[in-house]
Design a protein that fits this description.
This protein is an alpha+beta fold. The protein is about 40% helix and about 25% strand. It is built from 19 helices and 17 strands. The strands form 4 sheets. The chain has an 8-stranded mixed beta sheet, with helices on both faces. Strands 1, 2, 3 and 4 form a 4-stranded antiparallel beta sheet that branches. A 3-stranded antiparallel beta sheet has the order 5-16-17.
């Protein structure tokens, strides 16, 4: 007769992937050997947890009778870090950074990129979170994390790889014929950067007077996916970067047939002249206000040609390849009119104060005061003024104001893209895609990634910090694409629940905990709730 034993757990596995088989074993007299009968498989637990179950089945572990028998020893954030890192690997970002993905500096780079999305803050603060997050452990760093070894060394290597990384991203997202978005922003600094060639005073787009800054140029696909970033000195003018950027896109990124979309401050007439002989290049931009006025004066267009519903296309008689698409936005018209009225009211009040002043003054001093007011409000084109014997006489140019009102909300998209490539509707839509780059800048500067404050003092570290932020936004962009249905199905106003920040926070609450049961310790991950499961399913990430 065969002798059958009681149920036991047999632990099997390879390296760190262990599992348990619930079995009974018995001696088969006929076969003259021990045979096994399996009743189930236990997976997803650590080796220590399986040992605890094995001991309990043997009767070696005592029955749990109090809270003292089971303890949560430690708990760390796991879900957000794991999801972002897994997405990075699924997208091939680790291989894009460097082919040998097992090198520690590559893992450290991924930790910093994921860390921008999950925690932001300084590199030092990220390293000091090793007690609270599994991020660094997931990237192969156990215990204390050293900011010099695991951040700054990796940053130096990553910056060396930036041109190659951006080339790989371009090869992945561009083909030989591409519409490319390009825009520029600035980010200001606090503190002293005397030895920096980047940190300079310049036109501050954040309206932070008295602060030095850097200028950031960003290249995106037509869908807004970031491809490349460059840091320029803070006193760089927008238009001076365009010619080199076009050459970079065509030569380095192999976009031979390029439609370059840039704002009116970049695609200037001077840049058009300098790049007119570049093969395979077309541009899309918008006219400045003086350029629109010039077209009116040449009778190429009229103010009644602008329509809210229909885009009217006009060809420049002096340059048949130059297409003008006339557009009108009533919301913009209302905003522009309100802004101008407010500035005129302010200008009139200040000029009346100067004109009614009873103190004696010279013509030179009064003129200087008027010039200061008009320089501040930018309303000089609507003011007629003179100073006689130290007294100001002024009046509004009503005709000029009336003409200006006719152009409120009017804008013109200009391009040399042939009609067979893009019709008027698509041409205007292509220009409006620059809003996607502006969205990228908002995320880089404020919402999630917080490119500033910049804690680095050397130019190379500043450059790499901005590059890290761009790579983090690359992941965020892909996450937003996968989570689109979640955001679209959300409510509005006070009924709205989902934002990208909330997604990260919900994932953060998935914890990896170390528990101890009757002396045996093991690690386990908390079970996702319904919201978290939905997020992970949309991201196509399995815990």
């Amino acid at each position: 007769m065969d002798r059958q034993k009681s149920l036991h757990l047999e632990i099997q596995g390879h390296r760190k992937n262990y599992y348990g088989l619930l079995r009974t074993s018995y001696w088969d007299k006929k076969a003259k050997k021990v045979k096994h009968k399996s009743f189930g498989r236990i997976g997803g637990l650590s080796y220590e947890a399986l040992k605890a179950i094995q001991a309990a089945l043997r009767g070696d572990a005592k029955i749990l009778t109090s809270e003292e028998d089971i303890r949560i020893i430690s708990s760390k954030e796991y879900g957000a870090s794991y999801a972002v890192l897994q997405l990075a690997k699924e997208l091939g970002l680790d291989k894009t950074i460097y082919s040998k993905t097992n090198e520690q500096w590559v893992k450290d780079s991924l930790a910093m990129i994921a860390g921008r999305l999950v925690y932001a803050g300084s590199k030092l603060s990220l390293t000091n979170r090793y007690k609270d997050t599994a991020l660094w452990e997931l990237c192969g760093v156990e215990g204390v994390v050293d900011v010099d070894k695991h951040c700054y060394v990796a940053m130096d290597r990553l910056l060396e790889r930036q041109p190659a990384i951006q080339q790989k991203l371009a090869a992945k997202h561009f083909d030989g014929n591409a519409l490319v978005l390009y825009d520029i922003t600035s980010s200001y600094f606090e503190g002293e950067y005397d030895e920096s060639r980047i940190v300079k005073f310049g036109y501050n787009r954040d309206r932070k007077r008295g602060h030095e800054q850097m200028v950031i140029g960003l290249i995106c696909t037509s869908k807004g996916c970031p491809i490349a970033v460059e840091v320029f000195p803070g006193n760089t003018k927008d238009e001076t970067t365009v010619e080199a950027k076009i050459a970079e896109i065509q030569k380095r990124y192999q976009v031979t047939e390029l439609i370059f979309v840039g704002d009116r401050g970049m695609v200037t007439q001077a840049n058009i002249e300098r790049t007119k002989d570049v093969k395979g290049l077309n541009t899309i931009s918008a006219l400045t206000h003086p350029q629109i006025t010039e077209l009116l004066s040449r009778k190429v267009i009229q103010t009644d040609m602008f329509d809210e519903k229909n885009i009217l296309e006009v060809i420049d008689p002096d340059n048949p390849k130059r297409r003008y698409c006339l557009c009108y936005n009533p919301s913009t018209a209302k905003r522009e009119g309100k802004t101008r009225d407010a500035l005129l009211d302010k200008t009139c009040a200040e000029l009346n104060k100067i004109a009614n002043s009873k103190r004696k003054s010279t013509t030179t001093k009064v003129s200087a005061r008027v010039g200061k007011v008009l320089s501040k409000t930018k309303m000089s084109k609507f003011i007629e003024w003179k100073v006689y014997g130290g007294k100001l006489k002024w009046s509004l140019k009503e005709d000029g104001i009336d003409t200006e009102k006719l152009l409120d909300g009017c804008y013109i998209i200009v391009s040399d893209v042939p009609k067979e490539k893009l019709d008027a509707q698509k041409l205007v839509a292509s220009y409006k895609k620059l809003q996607l780059v502006e969205k990228a800048f908002r995320n880089l500067k404020t919402v999630q990634l917080e490119v500033r404050p910049v804690y680095h003092k050397t130019d190379n570290r500043i450059r790499c910090h901005v590059f890290l932020c761009m790579l983090a936004y690359y992941l965020q962009w892909h996450m937003n694409q996968r989570l689109k249905s979640l955001f679209e199905e959300d409510g509005e106003y006070k009924e709205r629940f989902w934002t990208f920040e909330n997604v990260i926070e919900r994932l953060k609450s998935i914890r990896r905990e170390k528990a101890r049961i009757t002396g045996a310790s093991f690690k386990t991950v908390t079970q996702p709730d319904d919201d978290q499961r939905k997020i992970l399913q949309l991201l196509k990430i399995k815990l």
